[in-house]
Design a protein that fits this description.
elongated, 15 strands, 7 helices, 292 residues, alpha/beta, 7-stranded parallel sheet
Protein backbone atom coordinates (compact mmCIF):
# COMPACT_ATOMS: atom_id res chain seq x y z
CA UNK A 1 0.00 0.00 0.00
CA UNK A 2 1.14 3.55 -0.77
CA UNK A 3 0.12 6.60 1.29
CA UNK A 4 0.73 10.15 0.04
CA UNK A 5 1.01 12.79 2.80
CA UNK A 6 0.95 16.58 2.51
CA UNK A 7 0.62 19.67 4.67
CA UNK A 8 2.14 23.12 4.42
CA UNK A 9 2.50 23.05 8.24
CA UNK A 10 5.44 20.97 9.47
CA UNK A 11 3.78 19.78 12.68
CA UNK A 12 0.66 18.62 10.87
CA UNK A 13 2.76 16.97 8.17
CA UNK A 14 4.51 14.91 10.87
CA UNK A 15 1.10 13.93 12.26
CA UNK A 16 0.05 12.84 8.78
CA UNK A 17 3.21 10.76 8.43
CA UNK A 18 2.42 9.19 11.81
CA UNK A 19 -1.01 8.20 10.47
CA UNK A 20 0.56 6.76 7.31
CA UNK A 21 3.07 4.71 9.33
CA UNK A 22 0.26 3.27 11.43
CA UNK A 23 -1.54 2.22 8.25
CA UNK A 24 1.59 0.49 6.94
CA UNK A 25 3.10 0.45 3.49
CA UNK A 26 5.20 3.07 1.73
CA UNK A 27 5.04 6.68 2.90
CA UNK A 28 5.35 9.28 0.14
CA UNK A 29 5.44 12.97 1.03
CA UNK A 30 4.96 16.26 -0.76
CA UNK A 31 6.65 19.04 1.18
CA UNK A 32 8.50 22.30 0.66
CA UNK A 33 10.74 21.35 3.63
CA UNK A 34 13.63 19.15 2.52
CA UNK A 35 14.61 17.91 5.97
CA UNK A 36 11.40 15.90 6.42
CA UNK A 37 12.98 13.38 4.04
CA UNK A 38 14.26 11.47 7.07
CA UNK A 39 10.67 10.49 7.92
CA UNK A 40 9.57 9.47 4.40
CA UNK A 41 10.32 6.66 2.00
CA UNK A 42 10.12 9.19 -0.82
CA UNK A 43 9.91 12.96 -0.68
CA UNK A 44 8.72 15.05 -3.60
CA UNK A 45 10.44 18.38 -3.05
CA UNK A 46 9.05 21.28 -5.15
CA UNK A 47 11.11 24.21 -6.28
CA UNK A 48 9.90 27.76 -5.74
CA UNK A 49 7.36 29.20 -3.32
CA UNK A 50 4.36 27.32 -1.96
CA UNK A 51 0.91 27.91 -3.39
CA UNK A 52 -2.34 25.96 -3.20
CA UNK A 53 -2.44 25.60 -6.99
CA UNK A 54 1.07 24.12 -7.08
CA UNK A 55 0.21 21.72 -4.27
CA UNK A 56 -2.95 20.57 -6.07
CA UNK A 57 -1.10 20.01 -9.36
CA UNK A 58 1.73 18.15 -7.63
CA UNK A 59 -0.56 15.92 -5.57
CA UNK A 60 -2.62 15.01 -8.62
CA UNK A 61 0.48 14.11 -10.63
CA UNK A 62 2.10 12.14 -7.79
CA UNK A 63 -1.11 10.28 -6.92
CA UNK A 64 -1.57 9.16 -10.52
CA UNK A 65 2.09 8.40 -11.18
CA UNK A 66 2.62 6.45 -7.96
CA UNK A 67 -0.86 4.88 -8.05
CA UNK A 68 -1.30 5.63 -4.36
CA UNK A 69 -4.00 4.02 -2.28
CA UNK A 70 -4.60 6.89 0.16
CA UNK A 71 -3.89 10.58 0.57
CA UNK A 72 -3.54 12.16 4.02
CA UNK A 73 -3.75 15.96 3.95
CA UNK A 74 -3.46 18.33 6.90
CA UNK A 75 -6.74 20.09 7.73
CA UNK A 76 -5.59 23.71 7.77
CA UNK A 77 -7.60 26.32 5.88
CA UNK A 78 -5.25 25.91 2.93
CA UNK A 79 -5.16 22.15 3.33
CA UNK A 80 -8.94 21.81 3.18
CA UNK A 81 -8.99 23.78 -0.06
CA UNK A 82 -6.20 21.64 -1.52
CA UNK A 83 -7.92 18.40 -0.48
CA UNK A 84 -11.24 19.43 -2.04
CA UNK A 85 -9.60 20.37 -5.35
CA UNK A 86 -7.46 17.21 -5.48
CA UNK A 87 -10.49 15.02 -4.72
CA UNK A 88 -12.39 16.69 -7.55
CA UNK A 89 -9.53 16.19 -10.02
CA UNK A 90 -9.09 12.54 -9.05
CA UNK A 91 -12.88 12.06 -8.93
CA UNK A 92 -12.76 10.40 -5.52
CA UNK A 93 -14.33 11.01 -2.13
CA UNK A 94 -12.72 12.64 0.89
CA UNK A 95 -13.29 12.37 4.64
CA UNK A 96 -12.78 15.76 6.28
CA UNK A 97 -11.92 16.19 9.98
CA UNK A 98 -11.22 12.47 10.22
CA UNK A 99 -10.88 11.22 13.80
CA UNK A 100 -9.97 7.66 12.81
CA UNK A 101 -8.52 6.18 9.65
CA UNK A 102 -8.25 2.77 8.01
CA UNK A 103 -7.38 1.40 4.59
CA UNK A 104 -11.04 1.44 3.54
CA UNK A 105 -12.43 4.56 5.24
CA UNK A 106 -12.73 6.34 8.55
CA UNK A 107 -14.82 8.20 11.10
CA UNK A 108 -15.68 11.85 11.58
CA UNK A 109 -18.00 13.82 13.86
CA UNK A 110 -21.06 15.24 12.13
CA UNK A 111 -23.75 17.79 12.98
CA UNK A 112 -21.50 19.77 15.30
CA UNK A 113 -20.33 16.67 17.16
CA UNK A 114 -23.80 15.22 17.72
CA UNK A 115 -23.25 12.06 15.68
CA UNK A 116 -20.39 9.80 14.63
CA UNK A 117 -20.26 9.24 10.87
CA UNK A 118 -18.61 6.06 9.62
CA UNK A 119 -17.62 6.43 5.98
CA UNK A 120 -16.11 4.12 3.36
CA UNK A 121 -14.35 4.98 0.12
CA UNK A 122 -15.96 3.70 -3.06
CA UNK A 123 -12.72 3.77 -5.04
CA UNK A 124 -9.04 4.59 -4.72
CA UNK A 125 -7.34 6.74 -3.78
CA UNK A 126 -9.28 7.78 -0.72
CA UNK A 127 -8.54 11.23 0.72
CA UNK A 128 -8.30 11.88 4.45
CA UNK A 129 -8.23 15.42 5.85
CA UNK A 130 -6.92 15.26 9.43
CA UNK A 131 -7.52 18.01 12.01
CA UNK A 132 -4.49 19.48 13.83
CA UNK A 133 -3.56 17.76 17.08
CA UNK A 134 -5.76 14.70 16.65
CA UNK A 135 -3.03 12.18 15.80
CA UNK A 136 0.45 11.56 17.18
CA UNK A 137 3.45 12.91 15.29
CA UNK A 138 5.85 10.40 13.79
CA UNK A 139 8.83 9.94 16.10
CA UNK A 140 10.99 7.34 14.39
CA UNK A 141 13.09 8.33 11.40
CA UNK A 142 12.77 5.96 8.45
CA UNK A 143 16.39 6.16 7.31
CA UNK A 144 17.58 6.96 3.82
CA UNK A 145 14.60 8.19 1.85
CA UNK A 146 14.63 9.13 -1.81
CA UNK A 147 14.51 12.84 -2.70
CA UNK A 148 12.74 13.75 -5.93
CA UNK A 149 12.85 17.38 -7.02
CA UNK A 150 9.83 18.61 -8.98
CA UNK A 151 8.63 21.87 -10.49
CA UNK A 152 4.84 21.93 -10.16
CA UNK A 153 2.99 24.57 -12.12
CA UNK A 154 0.13 26.76 -10.99
CA UNK A 155 -3.11 26.40 -12.93
CA UNK A 156 -2.85 30.08 -13.80
CA UNK A 157 -6.37 30.90 -12.61
CA UNK A 158 -5.17 32.77 -9.55
CA UNK A 159 -2.56 35.50 -9.62
CA UNK A 160 -0.99 36.76 -6.39
CA UNK A 161 -0.52 40.51 -6.64
CA UNK A 162 0.40 41.27 -3.03
CA UNK A 163 1.02 39.53 0.30
CA UNK A 164 0.38 41.08 3.69
CA UNK A 165 1.20 39.32 6.94
CA UNK A 166 -1.72 39.09 9.32
CA UNK A 167 -1.04 40.38 12.81
CA UNK A 168 -0.89 37.44 15.16
CA UNK A 169 -0.07 36.82 18.77
CA UNK A 170 2.44 34.27 19.99
CA UNK A 171 -0.14 31.83 21.31
CA UNK A 172 -0.57 28.37 19.80
CA UNK A 173 -3.50 26.73 21.54
CA UNK A 174 -3.28 23.62 19.36
CA UNK A 175 0.05 22.61 20.92
CA UNK A 176 -0.60 23.77 24.50
CA UNK A 177 -0.71 21.27 27.39
CA UNK A 178 -2.74 23.62 29.59
CA UNK A 179 -5.45 26.00 28.34
CA UNK A 180 -7.44 28.49 30.39
CA UNK A 181 -10.40 29.46 28.23
CA UNK A 182 -12.75 32.43 28.67
CA UNK A 183 -16.37 32.87 27.65
CA UNK A 184 -19.31 35.24 27.85
CA UNK A 185 -19.30 34.99 31.64
CA UNK A 186 -16.71 37.77 31.65
CA UNK A 187 -18.36 41.19 31.90
CA UNK A 188 -15.69 43.24 30.13
CA UNK A 189 -12.45 42.80 28.21
CA UNK A 190 -10.25 44.05 31.04
CA UNK A 191 -11.46 41.24 33.30
CA UNK A 192 -9.71 38.67 31.10
CA UNK A 193 -6.53 39.67 32.93
CA UNK A 194 -7.74 37.39 35.77
CA UNK A 195 -7.73 34.42 33.42
CA UNK A 196 -4.34 35.44 32.06
CA UNK A 197 -2.91 35.48 35.59
CA UNK A 198 -4.39 32.04 36.26
CA UNK A 199 -2.91 30.72 33.00
CA UNK A 200 0.48 32.16 33.93
CA UNK A 201 0.37 30.46 37.33
CA UNK A 202 -0.37 27.13 35.64
CA UNK A 203 2.11 27.58 32.80
CA UNK A 204 -0.70 27.57 30.24
CA UNK A 205 -2.14 29.74 27.48
CA UNK A 206 -5.40 31.62 27.00
CA UNK A 207 -8.19 30.30 24.79
CA UNK A 208 -11.75 31.50 24.28
CA UNK A 209 -15.19 30.62 22.96
CA UNK A 210 -16.53 31.94 19.66
CA UNK A 211 -18.37 35.04 20.96
CA UNK A 212 -15.24 36.39 22.68
CA UNK A 213 -13.21 36.31 19.46
CA UNK A 214 -15.81 36.62 16.69
CA UNK A 215 -18.48 38.90 18.20
CA UNK A 216 -16.86 40.90 21.00
CA UNK A 217 -13.36 40.76 19.48
CA UNK A 218 -11.77 40.81 22.92
CA UNK A 219 -9.14 38.29 21.77
CA UNK A 220 -7.57 37.51 18.36
CA UNK A 221 -9.03 34.58 16.45
CA UNK A 222 -6.01 32.31 17.10
CA UNK A 223 -7.40 31.97 20.66
CA UNK A 224 -10.80 30.82 19.35
CA UNK A 225 -11.55 27.17 20.22
CA UNK A 226 -14.48 25.24 18.81
CA UNK A 227 -16.02 23.75 15.71
CA UNK A 228 -15.21 26.81 13.58
CA UNK A 229 -12.02 27.66 15.46
CA UNK A 230 -9.11 25.57 16.73
CA UNK A 231 -9.50 21.98 17.90
CA UNK A 232 -7.33 21.22 20.90
CA UNK A 233 -6.22 18.24 23.00
CA UNK A 234 -4.47 19.61 26.11
CA UNK A 235 -3.75 17.71 29.30
CA UNK A 236 -5.86 20.27 31.18
CA UNK A 237 -8.63 22.51 29.83
CA UNK A 238 -10.26 25.03 32.19
CA UNK A 239 -13.48 26.62 30.92
CA UNK A 240 -14.28 29.91 32.66
CA UNK A 241 -17.78 31.29 32.13
CA UNK A 242 -18.35 29.14 29.02
CA UNK A 243 -21.84 27.70 28.64
CA UNK A 244 -20.64 24.68 26.65
CA UNK A 245 -22.68 24.69 23.46
CA UNK A 246 -21.99 21.74 21.15
CA UNK A 247 -19.94 23.92 18.77
CA UNK A 248 -17.45 24.59 21.56
CA UNK A 249 -17.48 21.02 22.89
CA UNK A 250 -16.53 19.79 19.40
CA UNK A 251 -13.23 21.65 19.76
CA UNK A 252 -12.29 20.36 23.23
CA UNK A 253 -13.59 16.79 23.32
CA UNK A 254 -10.07 15.33 23.08
CA UNK A 255 -8.84 17.16 26.21
CA UNK A 256 -7.53 14.78 28.87
CA UNK A 257 -9.14 16.66 31.78
CA UNK A 258 -11.83 19.35 31.51
CA UNK A 259 -12.61 21.66 34.44
CA UNK A 260 -15.65 23.95 34.18
CA UNK A 261 -16.59 26.97 36.28
CA UNK A 262 -20.00 28.52 35.68
CA UNK A 263 -22.64 30.08 37.93
CA UNK A 264 -25.45 28.42 35.94
CA UNK A 265 -25.79 24.89 37.28
CA UNK A 266 -27.81 23.96 34.16
CA UNK A 267 -25.01 24.99 31.77
CA UNK A 268 -24.32 22.24 29.18
CA UNK A 269 -20.59 22.40 29.98
CA UNK A 270 -21.24 20.44 33.19
CA UNK A 271 -22.36 17.43 31.15
CA UNK A 272 -19.03 17.39 29.32
CA UNK A 273 -16.47 18.04 32.07
CA UNK A 274 -14.50 15.91 34.52
CA UNK A 275 -14.72 18.47 37.34
CA UNK A 276 -17.32 21.22 37.68
CA UNK A 277 -17.63 24.17 40.02
CA UNK A 278 -20.97 25.95 40.23
CA UNK A 279 -19.93 29.46 41.19
CA UNK A 280 -19.17 33.01 40.09
CA UNK A 281 -15.90 33.18 38.14
CA UNK A 282 -15.22 36.55 39.78
CA UNK A 283 -15.08 34.75 43.13
CA UNK A 284 -13.60 31.41 42.11
CA UNK A 285 -10.70 32.60 39.92
CA UNK A 286 -9.10 34.80 42.65
CA UNK A 287 -9.34 31.86 45.08
CA UNK A 288 -7.62 29.55 42.57
CA UNK A 289 -4.86 32.11 41.98
CA UNK A 290 -4.38 32.62 45.73
CA UNK A 291 -4.08 28.87 46.37
CA UNK A 292 -1.73 28.32 43.45
Amino acid sequence: MKVLVHSEKRGLLLEGIGVARELGGEVICLSWEEDVLKYCDRLYYPKGDYSESKAVSALEEIAKGEEVDLLVIGGTKRGKEVAARVSQRLEVGSITDAISVSKDGGDRMGYGGRVLERLKFKRKPGVFVIPPGKFEKVKKESGDGELIEISPKSDGKIKVIEKKEKERGKVNVEEADIIVSVGRGFKKKEDISMAEELAKKLGGVIGCSRPVAADLRWLPEEHWIGLSGRKVRPKLYIALGISGQIQHIAGIMDSKIIVAINKDEEAPIFKNCDYGIVGDIYEVIPLMIKNL
